[in-house]
Amino acid sequence: MYLKNRCISTVIVVILIVAITVILAAVIGTFVMGLGDNLNTNVQAGASIQGDNTDNTITISFASAQESDTVLEVTTTNAGTSDGEATLSEVGDTITFKDGAADDTSSGSASIDTDAEGLDGNTITVTITAINDDTRTVVQTKEIEL
């Protein structure tokens, strides 16, 4: 009688182990297969922001991009208020802001509004966002004291 109970117990254990293995494989497989569908990729781009408090200028340069159709959107804020924006559409583009005016030395357009005293003595926050198709990635944010 002892042998009969032991034999039944072993069969039940094997069936349970196989069932648990099949369920775990299904759950893990579903998770792994569904995981790839939800991945968002970031837009890869490089830019530089240079502030010169002697000339009261801010220069933004588009340094690099992983995809050729990537553009940079530049926004500036002064004391929490949006001052202006610019678009750099090609690697090598540069825009310089000086006392309320933008000097577009390559391509794109820009404007910046500051108080009547110009940029001097203000803290300007520059945010650069890389855009490719419908994907937007903030590349850099920098505060510049002029």
Unreliable spans are 109-117
Average of per-residue pLDDT values:
77
Total number of helices: 1
Overall strand count: 9
Strand percentage, roughly? over 45%
Which descriptor suits the 3D outline?
Answer: elongated
Q: Strand pairing plus helix content: what structural class?
A: alpha+beta
Q: Specify Rg, calculated over alpha carbons.
A: 29 Å
Strand order of the largest sheet: 7-4-3-8-9
The amount of helix comes to 10-25%
First-to-last CA distance: 93 Å
Give helix and strand order, one letter per element, not per position: HEEEEEEEEE
**Main sheet characteristics:** 5 strands, antiparallel
Describe this protein's structure:
With 146 residues, the chain is of the alpha+beta class. It has one helix and nine strands. It has one helix at residues 2-35; strands at residues 45-52, 57-65, 71-78, 81-88, 94-98, 101-104, 110-112, 123-132, 135-145. Strands 7-4-3-8-9 form a five-stranded antiparallel beta sheet, with no helix packed on it. It starts with a helix and ends with a strand. The relative contact order is 0.18. Mean pLDDT is 77; it is low at 109-117.
